[in-house]
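$ ./design --mode recover --in tokens.txt
reading tokens...
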């Protein structure tokens, strides 16, 4: 967890509106067409100072709407919301309001909220935060809608996460655009009851990442030109162990071939450019109806944490994927030029001459198995029905000496995976609209 800089408010918002700050009273008002709730309206004109805006965040009351007028607002510090519930932070559209953090000197997030309920961010752009764009910690009832987070450098100096809800529940992310994140554009971690829909993520290391989370629907998104399109991870050492009940469907996962620019040591720094989708160490995951195209290293993978070759000390962590269903996805033009700058990509590149159709198989399992399970052809219950895939292969990374790759260990045979799992239920909660 990262530290948080909370801004003190020397005067209540009324004093600000009446001229209690250095800006004129016309810069902070009480009326905006964007304010439609029953709480107070805090209307910020384009002339509002950083002090005006940070005071509005810190002193928000239950049900308040903080409404930005069109314009660009520059910040040296983080905008941290106070303890109010039911707050809406809104602009007329993400293309009309820019919260610019390129000169930020203190704190770690652009916007931050913690331990509140029913929080909405809508209709604005967050630009060039030194670290994360918007972080929400332990929030119940969280909506991001028509929010853009972007960085311009496209290197490891960019912030790690664009939209960053963690340890939260009832999380809706829709209609957002994220680019330039040095880890993940949309990251949802250690959370539950999650819907990520109708977003566009591009030029990030990972477009969308669901990590150690329960009950998530990721659908109708476009993930293009990232290092990796969509990842469903479970990692050791976190407060919420493992991940389960995740559906990934009807997404466009296309041309994710951007060079990996994550910081060294970050888990996603080992992901090869050209990765479409993979699931690691989760259970009860259903992937269907996606278009997976033009990803030069690999289209879809099912892997254990063992593939990372990283050690861990977490007795509650289960490092194997189980009960994974891949079905009825569309694959075209994947696996034609694996990223040899990564260890996994280099391993895949060594076998190009032996793969069906001379490119990396569209669907791969790493072959690592929980040694405590009974022996069998499909001990982890991986069910794969992919008529358009070039091949379904057990890559048998468990049998490869990484210093002397032996690609002949690979077995391409869909028969062991011809099983069916029950369809997972749609994720919903009271108040979630279709």
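writing sequence...
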């Amino acid at each position: 967890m990262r530290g948080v800089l909370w801004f003190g408010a020397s005067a209540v918002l009324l004093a600000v509106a009446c001229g209690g700050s250095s800006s004129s009273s016309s810069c902070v008002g009480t009326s905006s067409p964007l304010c439609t709730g029953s709480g107070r309206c805090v209307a910020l004109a384009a002339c509002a100072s950083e002090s005006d805006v940070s005071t509005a965040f810190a002193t928000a009351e239950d049900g308040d709407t903080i409404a930005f007028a069109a314009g660009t607002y520059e910040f040296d510090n983080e905008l941290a919301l106070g303890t109010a519930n039911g707050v809406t932070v809104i602009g007329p559209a993400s293309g009309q309001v820019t919260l610019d953090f390129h000169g930020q000197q203190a704190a770690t997030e652009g916007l931050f909220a913690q331990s509140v309920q029913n929080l909405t961010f809508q209709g604005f752009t967050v630009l060039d935060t030194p670290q994360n764009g918007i972080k929400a910690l332990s929030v119940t009832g969280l909506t991001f809608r028509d929010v853009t987070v972007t960085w311009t450098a496209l290197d490891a100096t960019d912030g790690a996460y664009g939209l960053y809800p963690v340890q939260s529940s009832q999380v809706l992310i829709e209609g957002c655009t994220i680019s330039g994140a040095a880890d993940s554009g949309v990251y949802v971690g250690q959370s539950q009851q999650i819907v990520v829909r109708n977003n566009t993520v591009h030029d990030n290391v990972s477009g969308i990442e669901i990590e150690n989370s329960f009950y998530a629907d990721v659908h109708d998104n476009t993930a293009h030109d990232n290092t990796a399109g969509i990842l469903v991870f479970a990692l050791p050492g976190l407060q919420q162990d493992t991940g389960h009940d995740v559906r990934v469907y009807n997404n466009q996962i296309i041309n994710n071939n951007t060079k990996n620019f994550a910081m060294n040591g970050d888990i996603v720094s080992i992901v090869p450019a050209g990765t479409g989708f993979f699931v690691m160490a989760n259970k009860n995951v259903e992937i269907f109806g996606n278009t997976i195209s033009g990803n030069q290293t690999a289209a879809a993978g099912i892997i254990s944490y063992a593939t990372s070759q990283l050690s861990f000390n977490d007795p509650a962590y289960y490092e194997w994927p189980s009960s994974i269903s891949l079905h009825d996805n569309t694959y075209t033009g994947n696996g034609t030029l694996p990223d040899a700058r990564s260890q996994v990509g280099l391993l895949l590149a060594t076998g190009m001459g032996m793969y069906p159709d001379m490119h990396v198989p569209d669907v791969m399992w790493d072959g690592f198995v929980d040694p405590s399970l009974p022996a069998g052809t499909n001990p982890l219950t991986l069910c794969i029905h992919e008529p358009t895939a070039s091949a379904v292969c057990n890559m048998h990374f468990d049998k490869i000496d990484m210093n002397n790759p032996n690609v002949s260990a690979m077995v391409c045979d869909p028969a062991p995976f011809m099983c069916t799992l029950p369809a997972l239920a749609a994720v919903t909660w009271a108040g979630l609209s279709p």
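exit 0
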